[in-house]
Design goal:
alpha/beta, TIM Barrel, 2 domains, eight-stranded parallel beta barrel, 11% strand, binds flavin mononucleotide
């Protein structure tokens, strides 16, 4: 995991000691109506978090139900269900919505949240598409099998070795000679993409238009997203969040790094074209009264990527297209991810951009708390200056009531995204409303939950996962060593 050079440890600010009356009068606990007509009872928002509770079939398991039921017991204004795959392809233990057979399980999920939150919490589901990424290969297998030998390899190799016979040598010989090259030799003979495939694992890009499925994304994705949104509506969700953030397909279309020359990249207009077409296709399918929001980045936080100026333009365009909310995140990209070990895949939260996405207490002078809200507020301001009232959700290191309230008071945001603090204590909204904020178990912003996420292990919180559980039917993992949900709040 990335750690800023300074390594300054930031202490938690004391939790604002709100009474129940103060909570009732706060902006944080005031309602908000979206353009779809959906009313959120308050401004507390749990953004998407993949907890790795599904299975190889991508269905709603008892563990998925228990996870969301537990958040719903705290009755936040909204929960966004984790990134959920829209395609009918195996996706590891990622939750899926790419076929009608998933609707029944998802219906159980929406029922569970409604029941546990006493009908208070609005429930959205994040819809994701992602491109293929391979594990970092064993070099021996890469050179003997995966690498496609081209005339350029032969030519460069024969020049490097001053051996013209390599131009026409048997392919096995060429492979052996390539495998024997040192780092400098590889840099001369392999292309940049081939070196990346060797050193980090091959990763598809939206600009790989020579791959038919990638060239055809503008034709296929609007329908896939629209079908998934229609299923979400049938399953009883209050809306969908289109995942246009982090390292995935739609964020890659929006990125300055998108060089597609077919009208779906290169210019701002081109980069926005597919994301707008997807949003329109979804809206056309589900109608005006079903909530459709987007999550995208206020800053990609990578070299050559989108900055907050781009994000302002994207925000205005998406708001203009009629999305019901804009949720902002930061970073989380593959471009600066750490080199994975052989046999493992790169993970987009291991570099600096990943740190910006999920800032930790061990930080630089800026610290983790509301770290990117200044940038996120610029996106909101741009949307307002364009005459649009689309609500904006901010996130990143916001876990303290006074901080959340100040953000709303300044007009930096309309809704407060609280991810890891909600994992640490899903009852925090209820505790705050009850005037018992001092009982909130505070997130320490360590890298524990993110570390589990990186290994695709069931995500838990170190503040409670070893606490003994005597609740009947309590779920555990790692041979009973880790409990899977936070202990019940004994009022
Ligand atoms: C375990 C874990 C899984 C996450 N999964 C998602 C996800 O599926 N989609 C998404 O947009 N963000 C995801 N995030 C990012 C969070 O939504 C949030 O933006 C980030 O954690 C910063 O907020 P926080 O400081 O309140 O935790 C995840 C974060 C964590 C810790």
């Amino acid at each position: 995991m990335y750690k800023p050079k300074e390594r300054l440890r930031h202490a938690l600010a004391p939790m604002a000691p709100w009474t129940a009356e103060q909570a009732a009068r706060s902006r944080l606990f005031s309602p908000l109506e979206l353009a779809s007509g959906l009313v959120l009872e308050d401004r507390t928002w749990i953004p998407a978090m993949v907890p790795w509770r599904s299975n190889e079939e991508g269905v709603v398991t008892p563990e998925v139900l228990a996870w969301y039921r537990r958040f719903a017991e705290g009755a936040p204004g909204a929960i966004v269900v984790e990134a959920t795959g829209i395609r009918e392809v195996p996706s590891g233990p990622l939750l899926r919505i790419g076929h009608d057979r998933f609707v029944e399980g998802l219906r159980r999920l929406t029922d569970a949240v409604r029941e546990a939150s006493r009908g208070k919490t609005r429930l959205f589901i994040q819809l994701i598409d992602f491109l293929r990424i391979r594990r970092r290969p064993d070099p021996e297998r890469f050179f003997s099998r995966f690498l496609r030998i081209t005339p350029q390899h032969r030519e460069r190799l024969s020049q490097l070795a001053a051996d013209p016979s390599l131009e026409s040598a048997d392919e096995t010989v060429v492979r052996e000679r390539l495998a024997a090259l040192d780092q400098a030799g590889r840099a001369l003979v392999l292309s940049e993409r081939e070196r990346e495939a060797l050193e980090r694992g091959d990763r598809e890009r939206v600009s790989d238009v020579d791959v038919p499925e990638i060239r055809e994304l503008p034709a296929t994705l609007p329908g896939l997203f629209a079908d998934a949104a229609a299923r979400a509506a049938r399953a009883g969700f209050d809306g969908v969040e289109l995942h246009y953030a982090h390292a995935y397909t739609m964020a890659s279309f929006l990125s300055r790094l998108n060089t597609r020359a077919d009208g779906y990249g290169a210019t701002l207009e081109g980069r926005l074209r597919l994301p707008l077409e997807v949003a329109r296709a979804v809206r056309d399918r589900v109608g005006a009264s079903f909530t459709v929001g987007v999550r995208f980045l206020c800053d990609e936080a990578i070299d050559g990527g989108n900055d907050v100026g781009d994000a302002c333009a994207l925000g205005v365009a998406l708001a203009n297209a009629g999305v019901d909310f804009v949720s902002l995140s930061t970073g989380g990209k593959f471009e600066d991810a750490k080199q994975p070990k052989i046999g493992e895949a790169a993970y987009p939260y291991t570099g600096r951009s990943g740190f910006e996405c999920m800032p930790t207490a061990l930080s630089d002078a800026r610290g983790p708390f509301a770290r990117n809200v200044a940038k996120q507020s610029l996106v909101r301001r741009a949307i307002r200056e364009a005459g649009l009232s689309t609500p904006v959700v901010v996130a990143g290191g916001i876990g303290e009531l006074g901080l959340a309230e100040a953000i709303l008071e300044r007009g930096d945001a309309d809704l407060i995204g609280v991810a890891r603090q909600s994992l640490a204590d899903p009852d925090w909204p209820e505790k705050a409303r009850a005037g018992r904020a001092s009982e909130i178990r505070r997130c320490t912003y360590s890298s524990y939950c993110e570390g589990l996420d990186q290994k695709h292990r069931m995500v838990t919180c170190q503040l409670w996962d070893r606490l003994v559980t005597d609740e009947p039917g309590a779920q555990t993992t790692d041979g009973g060593r880790r409990r899977l949900i936070a202990p019940r709040w004994e009022r």
